Structures are given as structure tokens and as C-alpha cells.
């Protein structure tokens, strides 16, 4: 139930403002909307694809091929990439990107719960790790908000590598 | 809700599990779809962060990478699985179930699903654990039933049991596929309660009243008392009227030999109601009806070659005949055709009930030959389809010629004294057979 609104929110949030994006915003938006629609349709259709029948009619065959295409495509992954690309086409706005990241994580968990049929309570053991991840997320966004130490290209690289190193160190240090 | 099994890694396959015996099954481990999506998010975020030199894009990667760090290494390499069918023999349209026992999976969640073979439909979700999860603790031995429906008769595979183990975070999953045993799905017998009975019956004790007097229970008439007759059979009212001792007589009760011939040479018509389907459903009904009357029933399967079951009685004979229906052509029998069947397969005086669309010329000749040898035949015609081939004038002309040929075949058989009734597969078999079941069928030699 939550996957549909979350998918729509991710695409809309990453594309806004539509006029503020660089070239390529429109194709990325189309890809994002298509992937969101396909991901939600796949969840609604379920996993059952009707068996191919020698006597099946055109409508049945079309429906079966459509369902097979829905099953085969990595639509949720495509939505994630399209949303991040849309966000990258806009000017730097760290808090905006941070919220998008939270929405994307929520969307992926909603898809997982819908696919597996598990209850949200099954995610309880993951809450500490998720909290640690969100902490790192805030750290990265905060690092991006800090004024640059210098004006050269090296200062930008340095901030990126610092953020990536913090994330990797956090993952490696996780006592799982 | 079931989880689709579309991960890219190869599946471990095992031999068919011996019913009732736990069998070790190798697991093939790989990332789940959820894990692959998290990897996509992490890699996309890090790549964009590096390419655009914007540190905030490392933020989406942080929670994803931390969750992926929970990847477990202590996973079982194999589990113990036993899968048994609740029924190995069933009738088309019936439900059966696969009873599965899985053990040795620790605290992982187990999901079971049937990948159905042709003409098998998995049962309704939740009815008996279809697609359900087996989460009953460490090394649980829960026995969920996975129901399935056999849509069409035949000897067929049920499919493959897909077992998916998932860690509690849904990051890694182990998969195994276990081929399920075969089932024998009998054709659904049509409705038939009445039976055609011949005027001449062999001298074996049975349940049909014969024309000759005997020790049966059906009243046949009254005759004068002869010394030695049983006194309890004296008809006192008739004795009083005639002034001499009169005795009740009863009809003898005899068994009937019936041979059901199923013509499986043609398979035309709409799917699910082809001539072959109708032949076997009708034959099953007739076999069941005569066996219920304790008659001796034999069976001849006429395909590319003939195979037969000699007449017999009882439930065991029913199963023997059903198994013969499902057998592939050539598993048993004589390669030289039906005209040289042994005497045991076609006992003298037997009623031969033929289910056929009469499209095979060899069978028509064989029926003429059998009639010539003095057998009493009754043909149930199951042809309900016309040849296709367009709507133009020539196609219509060809269809008319074909229909005339079919009419000629049926006319020639009727002229030989072989009654033919038509059955559409939907109505009860009692209706087309009614003219021959209301009275005994006179057998001509």
C-alpha cells in the first residue's frame, strides 16, 4: 500500500523544481515515472504469470507477455537510479538530497514488505542498524552543508572522500 | 503472498525425494532481490557523489551499506526435505496436496512454493500453506500442505517444489528445487447409472435376470409342482385356483461380460472436451457402472496399437483399467492390432461398447470384422467437431463432402446391425443409451 505513494513522492521530490534541473531532466523524469508505475504494477500483479497455452488468444498472450515483462524488469532499482539522477541534475541542496535518501530507503523497504508478505514488525531487529545508517546520512548531508575549506577542486573531492570513508567505516565497524 | 523466484543465481536441483524419507538437498545461496536493490542504491549514490563531487550523495549509500554489512556467513549448505503427496491417484478436477517437511534450517525463514507442471494449478493461497512460510523455530519440522489441482487427466508430473530460505534481514536467500513425484490423474467419469444388458448371458452367476429359469430372486412365472421341488416355493393362491399344486419359478441371475473399447486415435475438438477426453470420460463411466453391477468388465485401448485388460470384477479391476487408460501407447499389448486379440480379451458373447469419433478407417474395418465374428457392439459416437479450413465456397463444399462420408460410415455400420448413439460429453450417458437400457438388447449371431 505504501510503495505507490512513496514511489510517487520520490520522483516528485527529486524532480522539483522542474524548471531548476539541467538538460536531461525531462528524459530522467520520464524514466522515473515509468519505473515507478511498473514497480507498483508489478506489486499489484503479484508473482503468478499464467502458463503459455497453445490455444491462448491475443488478449491472453498480450497479458501474459506484459506480466512477464513486469516480472523481469528491475523497476524499483531503475526508480532509485532515475530519482538520484534527477536530484543530481539540480543544484546542490544537501537537506533535499537527505530527505530523498530517506524516502528511497522507505520505498525499498515497502517493496520488500509487499513482496515477501511480511509484517512491518519483522523489521524491528534492523532498527538499530537503520538508525546508525540514518545518523551517517545526516553526517554526510551536514558535511555537504559546511562551507568549503578552499575554492579549488581538491576541496570538493576531499569532502566526497571524507563522506564515503565515513560510510564505509561505519559499515565495517557494525557489530553484526 | 508469494515471493517470485527470479534471482539470477543457479538453482540447486536434487533427485526426486523419496516419499516419507528426509532427503538432503543442497542450497544455492545468493543475494535477495531486496539486497540487490540496496546495492543499486548504494552504488548509484557513491558513483554520483564521486562524479559530481557532491558529498550529500554519499548519504543514500549509508543506510544501504550498513544493512548489507549484515550479510551472514554461517548459512546451512543443505537442508533435509521430505515431500509426499496426499494422493498418488486422483480424478481430474480434484485437489491433492504435497506434504512437505523441512528441517535443518536453523533460525532462517522458509518459504515453499510449487512451480506447477502442465495442467496442474497450485491451490488457493492460504488454504493449506501454499506460498506460506515455515517459521516454527530452529530446526522446525512443520508440515505445511501445498494444495494443487489436476486440471486434466493423464499421467503427469506435479511440478517442482521451490524452497527458499531467507535470513531474518532478507539480505541473502538460499534456494533449492525438488522435483515432485508423478501422479495418475484419472478421467472424470461421466454420469451413467443405467446399463445395457444382453438377452443372452454366459452361464456364470451374476446380478442380471436372464431369460432362463434359475435360482434368482426375480419372479418369472408359475408351473406345476414336480416331486422334488422345494415346498416353500409353492404358490398357494394359484394352487387354490387351479386345483393342483403350482410352483413359483424365478429367473436365473447371470453375469455379463462387457468389453469397453476406447478409441484414442483422434484428438479433435475444443480443448478440455476433445474426442479423446470424451472417449476416456465415457469409458470410465461405463466401466464404473458395470463394475458396480458386479459384471465382468474388460478394456481395450485402441491407439497406434491395441492394448487390453481381460474382463474382471471389483474395484481393483477399475484401477487396472484406469491405469491402462493412462498408459502410453505400446506399454503393453499386441502390435498386430485389434483383430488378433486373444479370446481372453474378447470373450464370446461379450457386449462391446465402443467409444469413438469413428475417424479412423482401420477401427471402422475392425468393428465390421468384430460384428462379422458375432459380437454384439454398441458404438457411442463422440464426434462433436467439424473440420475448420476457412469460410469460402470450396471449404464449405469440402466440409459437406466430409459430413457425407461420416454419414456413410455410420449408415454402413447401422446396416450391419451395430447401433450408434451420439454423446456430446455434457449430458448424462443415460440419455443416449436410453433406447437400449429400457429393455434387454437382443444379441444377434
Describe this structure in words.
The complex is a heterodimer of chains A (176) and B (445). Chain A is an all-alpha fold and 176 residues long. In chain A, 72% of the residues lie in helices and 0% in strands. Chain A has 2 domains: 1-118, no CATH class; 119-176. Chain A has 7 helices and no strands. The model of chain A has no long low-confidence stretch (mean pLDDT 82). With 445 residues, chain B is α/β, with parallel strands linked by helices. Chain B folds into 4 domains: 1-27 and 75-186, Immunoglobulins (Immunoglobulin-like, Sandwich); 32-74, no CATH class; 205-254, no CATH class; 257-437, 3-Layer(aba) Sandwich (Rossmann fold), CATH 3.40.50. In chain B, 24% of the residues lie in helices and 31% in strands. Chain B is built from 8 helices and 22 strands. In chain B, helix 1 crosses helix 2 and helix 4 packs antiparallel against helix 5. Mean pLDDT of chain B is 82; it is low at 1-18, 126-140 and 331-335. Classes of the chains: A mainly alpha (176), B alpha/beta (445).
Q: Which term fits the overall shape of chain A?
A: globular
Integer tally of domains of chain B: 4
- Helical stretch count of chain B? 8
Number of domains of chain A: 2
Which pair of chains has the greatest number of interface residues, and how are they split between the two chains?
Answer: A-B, 67 and 46 residues
- Rounded to an integer in angstroms, the radius of gyration calculated over CA atoms of chain A is 20 Å
List low-pLDDT spans of chain A.
none
Order of helices and strands of chain A: HHHHHHH
Amino acid at each position: 500500500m505504501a510503495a505507490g505513494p512513496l514511489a510517487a513522492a520520490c520522483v516528485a521530490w527529486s524532480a522539483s523544481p522542474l524548471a531548476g534541473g539541467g538538460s536531461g531532466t525531462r528524459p530522467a523524469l520520464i524514466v522515473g515515472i515509468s519505473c515507478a508505475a511498473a514497480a507498483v504494477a508489478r506489486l499489484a500483479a503479484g508473482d503468478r504469470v499464467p502458463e503459455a497455452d497453445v490455444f491462448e488468444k491475443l488478449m491472453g498472450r498480450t497479458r501474459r507477455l506484459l506480466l512477464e515483462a513486469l516480472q523481469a524488469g528491475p523497476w524499483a532499482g531503475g526508480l532509485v537510479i532515475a530519482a538520484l539522477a534527477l536530484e543530481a541534475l539540480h543544484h546542490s541542496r544537501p537537506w533535499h538530497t537527505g530527505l530523498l535518501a530517506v524516502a528511497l530507503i522507505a520505498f525499498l523497504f515497502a517493496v520488500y514488505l509487499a513482496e515477501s508478505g511480511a509484517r512491518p514488525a519483522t523489521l524491528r531487529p534492523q532498527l538499530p542498524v537503520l538508525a546508525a545508517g540514518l545518523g551517517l546520512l545526516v553526517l554526510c548531508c551536514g558535511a555537504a552543508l559546511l562551507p568549503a575549506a578552499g575554492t579549488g577542486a581538491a576541496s570538493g573531492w576531499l569532502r566526497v572522500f571524507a563522506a564515503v570513508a565515513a560510510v564505509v567505516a561505519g559499515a565495517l565497524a557494525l557489530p553484526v | 503472498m508469494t515471493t517470485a523466484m527470479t534471482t539470477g543465481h543457479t538453482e540447486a536441483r536434487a533427485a526426486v525425494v523419496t516419499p516419507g524419507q528426509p532427503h538432503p538437498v543442497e542450497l544455492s545461496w545468493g543475494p535477495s532481490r531486496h539486497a540487490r536493490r540496496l546495492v543499486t542504491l548504494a552504488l548509484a549514490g557513491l558513483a554520483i557523489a564521486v562524479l559530481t563531487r557532491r558529498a550529500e550523495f554519499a548519504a543514500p549509500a549509508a543506510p544501504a551499506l550498513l544493512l548489507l554489512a549484515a550479510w551472514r556467513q554461517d548459512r546451512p549448505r543443505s537442508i533435509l526435505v521430505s515431500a509426499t503427496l496426499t494422493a498418488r491417484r486422483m480424478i481430474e478436477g480434484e485437489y491433492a496436496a504435497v506434504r512437505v517437511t523441512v528441517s535443518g534450517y536453523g533460525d532462517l525463514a522458509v518459504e515453499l512454493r510449487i512451480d506447477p507442471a502442465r495442467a496442474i494449478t497450485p491451490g488457493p493461497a492460504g488454504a493449506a500453506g501454499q506460498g506460506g512460510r515455515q517459521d516454527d523455530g530452529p530446526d522446525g519440522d512443520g508440515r505445511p500442505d501445498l494444495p494443487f489441482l489436476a486440471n486434466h487427466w493423464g499421467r503427469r508430473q506435479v511440478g517442482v517444489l521451490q524452497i527458499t530460505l531467507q535470513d531474518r534481514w532478507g539480505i541473502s536467500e538460499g534456494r533449492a528445487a525438488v522435483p515432485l513425484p508423478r501422479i495418475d490423474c484419472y478421467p472424470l467419469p461421466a454420469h451413467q447409472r443405467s446399463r445395457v444388458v444382453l438377452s443372452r448371458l454366459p452361464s456364470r452367476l451374476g446380478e442380471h435376470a436372464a431369460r432362463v429359469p434359475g435360482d434368482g430372486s426375480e419372479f418369472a412365472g408359475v408351473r406345476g409342482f414336480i416331486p422334488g421341488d422345494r415346498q416353500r416355493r409353492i404358490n398357494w393362491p394359484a394352487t387354490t385356483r387351479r386345483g393342483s399344486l403350482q410352483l413359483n419359478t424365478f429367473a436365473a441371475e447371470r453375469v455379463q461380460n462387457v468389453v469397453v473399447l476406447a478409441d484414442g486415435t483422434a484428438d479433435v475438438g475444443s480443448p478440455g472436451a476433445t474426442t479423446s477426453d470424451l472417449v476416456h470420460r465415457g469409458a470410465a463411466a461405463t466401466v464404473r457402472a458395470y463394475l458396480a453391477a458386479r459384471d465382468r468388465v474388460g478394456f481395450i485401448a485402441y491407439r497406434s496399437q491395441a492394448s487390453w485388460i481381460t474382463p474382471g470384477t471389483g474395484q481393483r479391476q477399475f484401477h487396472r483399467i484406469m491405469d491402462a487408460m493412462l498408459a502410453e501407447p505400446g506399454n503393453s499389448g499386441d502390435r498386430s492390432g485389434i483383430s488378433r486379440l486373444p479370446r481372453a480379451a474378447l470373450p464370446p458373447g461379450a457386449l462391446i461398447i465402443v467409444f469413438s469419433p469413428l475417424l479412423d478407417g482401420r477401427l471402422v474395418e475392425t468393428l465390421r470384422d468384430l460384428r462379422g465374428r458375432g459380437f454384439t457392439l454398441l458404438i457411442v459416437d463422440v464426434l462433436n467437431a467439424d473440420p475448420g479450413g476457412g469460410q469460402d465456397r470450396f471449404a464449405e463444399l469440402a466440409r459437406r463432402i466430409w459430413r457425407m462420408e461420416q454419414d456413410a460410415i455410420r449408415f454402413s455400420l447401422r446396416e450391419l446391425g451395430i447401433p450408434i448413439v451420439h454423446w456430446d460429453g455434457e449430458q448424462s450417458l443415460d440419455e443416449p443409451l436410453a433406447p437400449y437400457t429400457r429393455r434387454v438388447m437382443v444379441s444377434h449371431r
